[in-house]
Amino acid sequence: MPSETTENSGGSPPQAGVHLLVLIHGMWGNPNHLAEMRRVVEERRGSKKGPNGEQLHVLVAETNKEDGTYDGIDWGGERVAEEVFEEIKNLEKDGKKVTHFSVTGYSLGGLIARYLVGILHQRGFFTSVTPVNFNTVATPHVGLPRYPTMLSSLFAFFGPRLLSRTGEQFYIVDKWSKNGRPLLEVMADPNRLFYQALSLFEHLRIYANAVNDITVPFPTAAIELDDYFMNHIQDDLKIEFDEEYAPIIKSYTIPESTVRPPKPRPLSIEWFKSLKPTRPLLPPALQFGFPYNVLVYVLTPILIPLFFTLVITRLSLAAHASRSRIKQLEKDESGTERLVHVIGSLEREVEDAVVDMFDSASGPSKPALAAASSASAFPDTNASDSSDLSGASQAERAPGLVLNETQRRLVMWLNGLPGLQKNFAFIHPVRNAHATIIARDVKRFPFHKLGEGVLRHWADHLIL
């Protein structure tokens, strides 16, 4: 393990050891979205040092923000990697040496973080720097799942078209590798360096919203096959919160048998009561008090078509600009050594080896990844250790969740990561918990403070 200080042969002053923590925001994001995350970690851990005196240094990635997030997980990872190396150079100029490395990604930022550590591993970064913490918060690890609803179907149709390269990767319709494999599949493959890079980290932990995350639903953020919390009200789910870190779930119990009341007769009093929403109908920006709320509801038939027209137009223009940027980036000769080319060469070598193996084999052989793809690949996690999942089948509790074959395989592979820990946040009722889980904008939306417990849990559980 690198020591706290080093001294070169020229007798220059020793360099102070630094534990570099990189924070990466999500889609359409900017560094301000992680302001609370940075504040919390610096307040709670900034004055503490590692075992060899390493001082925590926080870098909030800036190069891949706003419309730049349309350009794909891979280009985002390449940009952040260059930012990391530049920060290390600046620290060295100040007489500091990075000896430990950690990264936390929020939403899309978690996928970029997984790509980033692949780049670092491929460049030999971890031969001299110790990888310590890898964390994600509300990250679509296996892409975006589809539910049997009109809205989900629309997102699945328009997403790859309106979000450029990133949208294609979100919905796993891209052909990233030379063999046409989607990027998320390559990144989750235990035989690829992305997965191997993750396995190097001492501490792997992911955070997911259990409910109300419209942007990144529970199964993909938690890397689970089922949505245990989809019908939490009907199932009378019992939630116990962590006393210190609410809304983090300490334990949850699903009753062995759930008897749901019959559906009320249409137009009856009970039927009208059942129509009452359990969370706000409108996004925070449109939640006004009386009498403005009445005006908003009256104008809804006009506002909704206008809103969707503006959104589609804005996304179309941004996607077009992104595709033009990507074409220019891919023409750049300096990009020929990017990780995609390294992976492509490796895949061709693997294909040749597989052909040779089958040509020379005297009998049937099992794929190398059979064990990693089995159900036994699931590790115990903090959240599920204290939960009771017996009783009614998950198919009965969460009908309609559609994970395709590729996504289910990714779940199996990723749950095989050594030491993977999971924590779930139960933030209810809110319209969308995706921003709340990181307290993304507490000045504009005070209820985002509900997510501060998640940030405190994350900061306190970082290994220095």
Task: Give a short synopsis of this structure.
The protein is of the alpha/beta class. The protein contains 15 helices and eight strands.
- Compressed to H and E, one letter per element, the order equals EHEHEHEHHHHEHEEHHHHHHEH
Round the Cα radius of gyration to an integer and report it: 24 Å
Query: How much beta, percentage-wise?
Result: 5-15%
Q: Helix/strand-derived class?
A: alpha/beta
The averaged pLDDT comes out at 81
Number of H/I helices: 15
Describe the structure in your own words.
The chain has 464 residues and is of the alpha/beta class. It is built from 15 helices and eight strands. The chain has helices at residues 35-45, 73-93, 108-122, 150-162, 164-170, 183-188, 193-199, 218-222, 269-274, 292-331, 339-360, 382-385, 394-397, 405-414, 452-460, and strands spanning 16-24, 55-60, 96-106, 130-137, 203-209, 238-241, 249-253, 421-425. Strands 2-1-3-4-5-8 form a six-stranded parallel beta sheet. Strand 1, helix 1 and strand 2 form a beta-alpha-beta unit. Helix 2 (73-93) crosses helix 3, helix 3 packs across helix 7 (193-199) and helix 4 (150-162) crosses helix 5. The radius of gyration is 24 Å and the shape is globular. 39% of the residues are buried. Mean pLDDT is 81; it is low at 1-7 and 350-399.
Write the layout of secondary structure elements.
Layout: E1 16-24, H1 35-45, E2 55-60, H2 73-93, E3 96-106, H3 108-122, E4 130-137, H4 150-162, H5 164-170, H6 183-188, H7 193-199, E5 203-209, H8 218-222, E6 238-241, E7 249-253, H9 269-274, H10 292-331, H11 339-360, H12 382-385, H13 394-397, H14 405-414, E8 421-425, H15 452-460
Parallel strand pairs: 1-2, 1-3, 3-4, 4-5, 5-8
Antiparallel strand pairs: 6-7
